[in-house]
Design brief:
The chain is mostly helical. It is 76% helix and 0% strand. The chain binds protoporphyrin IX containing FE (HEM) (2 copies). Belongs to the cytochrome b561 family.
């Protein structure tokens, strides 16, 4: 990547990382309400107020994820990111880079497709939207395993600098 490098992540970037983590947990909790609200919209049948609140929480949290991921990328291209540590094997750094790239791609694509489905009422787009959920969970699991491996096995400061 041609972006400049720096010693530490910016505070903004660290804050946005953990905000996105919290919002993905919110999506994990609220997605069933969104599915029910969407079904109601598709069939023209009213849903309870509780389901509607849950559905709107999904839309708001998802839109915030889109904004936060976008801001992180701007910050990263503007000010760079700290270098990957030298003491880990090359293959592992490449797995990290590819995982990060794919996570960013899904964090931008998924909410965009969700919003597009919502505003057009198109169920096919909604299906593309939900398709990315399982890949996101698998990538996040890989990412967390990598972060823990950096800390406990390779004993780098990668986890500490994201704190
Ligand atoms: C990164 C952010 C988001 C994530 C991780 C996410 C995740 C999910 C998940 C897991 C489901 C249910 C999948 C299922 O059980 O089949 C879902 C459904 C849905 N989401 Fe999102 N969502 C996000 C953002 C959004 C946004 C911003 C909107 C905008 C309106 C949205 C609209 C929808 C709709 C309409 C459905 C129902 C689709 C259906 O039942 O076919 N999502 N989302
Ligand atoms: C929904 C969950 C998560 C998502 C979507 C996510 C996403 C990301 C992304 C995209 C990056 C790459 C930053 C960049 O190169 O610009 C990153 C970095 C990082 N994440 Fe996560 N993350 C999640 C959860 C976690 C958790 C639970 C941990 C801790 C166990 C963690 C630890 C880290 C660390 C240490 C870095 C910095 C890596 C480095 O400096 O090379 N992440 N995260």
């Amino acid at each position: 990547m041609l972006a400049p490098t720096r010693d530490r992540w910016s505070r903004l970037n660290v804050y946005l990382h953990w905000l996105i983590v919290a919002l993905v947990v919110v999506q994990y909790i609220d997605h069933e309400w969104m599915v029910q609200m969407w079904d109601g919209e598709q069939h023209g049948s009213p849903v309870s107020q509780g389901i509607a609140y849950g559905g709107w929480l999904h839309i708001i949290a998802g839109s915030l994820i889109l904004g936060a991921a976008f801001l992180r990328l701007i910050d990263r291209f503007w000010s760079g990111r700290p270098p990957h540590p030298d003491q880990v094997p090359n293959w592992s750094t490449w797995v990290a880079k590819i995982t990060h790239f794919l996570i960013y791609a899904i964090l931008l694509l998924m909410p965009s497709l969700g919003l597009l489905a919502w505003f057009t009422g198109d169920d096919t787009i909604a299906h593309y939207h939900t398709f990315f959920w399982t890949p996101l969970l698998i990538l996040v699991a890989l990412h967390i395993a990598g972060a823990l491996m950096q800390h406990f096995y390779y004993r780098t400061d990668v986890l500490r600098r994201m704190a």
